[in-house]
Amino acid sequence: MKNLKPFILAATAAVLMVSCSDNDINPVDNQNAKLLDAHSHEVCSYIDGNWGQNAYIGSTIVNQSETNFLNNQNVKIANVFNISTIPLYFAKGSGTANAISYGSGYIIYGEELYNMALSQGGRISCAMVQAHEIGHQLQYQNNLPSRSESTARATELEADGFAGYYIKKPNGYNATWTQAAPAYNFAASIGDYNTTSPGHHGTPAQRRSAFRLGYLLGDYDLTVSSFDYNFFYYYDNYVLPGALRQDLKKPDDIDEGLHNFILSKMEELRKINSGEISKEEFENLK
C-alpha cells in the first residue's frame, strides 16, 4: 500500500508482548531504515504509527526458508521491472498485518500478514503482496499513476496490475492462471465498497479485474510507463464503463497484436469487474 497506508488490516490480532524499554524507541525513517541493513539480530524498537506499538524490525520473516524466498522474490521483481532492488525490512510481533511501501524508498512487510497470505494462498500470495508493494515504488519513481482520482483506487488498482504482470512473466514468478487466481483471491478479498472514501482501494471485483488485466499484459514486454499507458487505456475505456466499446480507434502507439489480444479478453474482464464472474469462476479462467 502506498503513502504509508497498510496493505491489509486484520480484524483481530493475537497479543504478542515484546519487551521494549523507552530507551529503545527508534522510529524507522528514511535515514535509519538504511542502517537496519547492518543488523543481523532482532531490533527491539518502535517502527512508526502504521504498526502496532509492540511491533519491531527483525532479521527474518517466519523462518529462514521464508526469508530467503521473499528476499529472492524481491530481487526477481526488481529485475522484471529493470530497477534496483528495493530495501526490504520485516516487521515482527503484534500489529504487523500490514505491508507498507514508503515514499522514501523502502518496504516493510509484516510477519502477521505474511503468515495470513501463506496459509490462505501459499507462497505465491506472499510474492504477489511484495510485487504490489514494489508497484508502489514504481509509481513513486515514475510519478504514476497517470490517472488521477479523488480516492486511492487508481493507485491501488495499478499496483494490482503490476503484481499480475510480474506473476505472469517467464522471468518473474512464471505462474499459470490456475496457480495465480486462487492466490490472488486472498488479496482481492480486502477490496472495499467505500467508494467515496479517500482510502478506497477498489471493490474485490475491480481488484480481480485489475490483476487479471496486468496478468494478460504480462504476455508482452512493457516498460513501466508503457504498462501504465496500456493499463489505463483498457481499464478506463473498456473495463470500468461496464460495456464493450466498439467505437474507439486504437491509438497508434499501442501494439496491434497486444490490442487484439486484450480485446479478445475484454468480455471476461468486463464480467470480472461487474461481479458477474464469481470468485470460483475467476479461478477457472484460462
From TrEMBL:
Protein's name according to its UniProt entry: Metalloprotease
Protease among keywords: yes
Keyword vocabulary terms for this entry: Hydrolase, Metalloprotease, Protease
UniProt-recorded Gene Ontology molecular function terms: metallopeptidase activity
PROSITE patterns given in the database record: PROKAR_LIPOPROTEIN (PS51257)
Native organism: Tenacibaculum discolor
